[in-house]
Amino acid sequence: MWGSLSVSALVAGFVAVLVGFTSSVVIVFQAAAAFGATPVQTASWIWALGLGMGLTSLGLSLRYRQPVLTAWSTPGAALLATAGVGFPMAEGVGAFMLCALLITAAGFTGWFARVMDRIPVSLASALLAGVLARFAFDGFAALQREKLLVGTMLVAYLLGRRWWPRYAVPGVLAAGMAVAAWQGQLHWGSVQWQLAMPVFTMPQFSLAAAVGIALPLFVVTMASQNLPGVAAQRAAGYDTPVSPVLTTTGLATLVLAPFGGYALNLAAITAAICMGREAHEDPARRWTASAAAGVIYIVVGLLGGAVVGLIAAFPKELVLAVAGLALLGTIGSGLAAAMKDEGQREAALITFVVTASGLTLWGVGAAFWGVVAGAVVLGVQRLGR
User: Fold this and answer.
1) Dist CA 311 CA 303 (whole Å)
2) What are the extents of the domains in the chain?
3) Quick count: other Cβ atoms within 10 Å of Cβ 50?
4) Smallest Cα–Cα separation from 175: which of 162, 156, 193, 151?
5) pLDDT per position as a tens digit, 232-259
6) How far, in whole angstroms, is CA 318 from its chain's centroid?
7) I need a surface site. Which of 15, 22, 81, 382 has the fewest CB within 10 A?
8) What is the pLDDT of residue 251?
């Protein structure tokens, strides 16, 4: 593997991890707090999630030689931050394990893969572009608050795309860190390098936790995370077997749930960073980016106590800008593929708009409703034909 690893792939893996943590780790902390977690237990959650994402990403990327990246369930964490209030940690862990069994069953039976096979490529591509668009919007909006920092990164991106396209994103990150350091915005002193200690919680099972936590967690994880995760794979031209990957994330969640690993799933946004040309010119070698991200996730998981400091070290605008610029190529490719078939163009456009809108109904995110809207449009267009 390491002989195939390039600088661009390594940086893509690092950016994927950086974006993954900075975009939602605070929500994970809030979810842990809802169950009354102590600081040691919260660090154990990061330990479990980091190791879970790292080992599954590394293992699946090596197994299939395709960019397979996993993530914690961000909408799941948002759900737990409210639904978990009033439940003891033990019942929460029991609910996590029930959710893990449901995810494993969805993978083992193959029903989720069959559903995904029925989604046209145009809708899958529009879904991916819509999921990623918010990061591009936020990246350029950051220019309002940090003109010099984000403006320098934008110039570095344009020059990089013109003269050294393979290293455009590493150049953006380097330029951003240089400006942030010059402005005194990199706060490395807040990082405390210490190993996280896993804390085991004996699960307790209750009907209230099963209905109030396990089932909603399963639904939002499948609809808002695994669905766009598979769409990202398909839109990028990879045919990674869905069922074995889903089963792997379910089993990993089952093992790590007692330590705080509440739900693992396929990544979409961070995976797209590892699937684009910025990771590697050769699509057959982009798996090294997700494998590198897996190794970094493992290190971050082991150093769970340092995560808060690492998040604070980077300015928010730097993270938003590097994510938005790194995803531009994937967004463009997704839109091009979505609009290619004239007969499905309107359905794909509506899928993109609904997904990009951020619409949430009954706790289910925009990715699901985007596909539903696009499918309805296709169905209406085919009536009477």
Assistant:
1) 13
2) 7-340
3) 26
4) 156
5) 888 788 888 989 999 999 999 999 999 9
6) 18
7) 382
8) 96
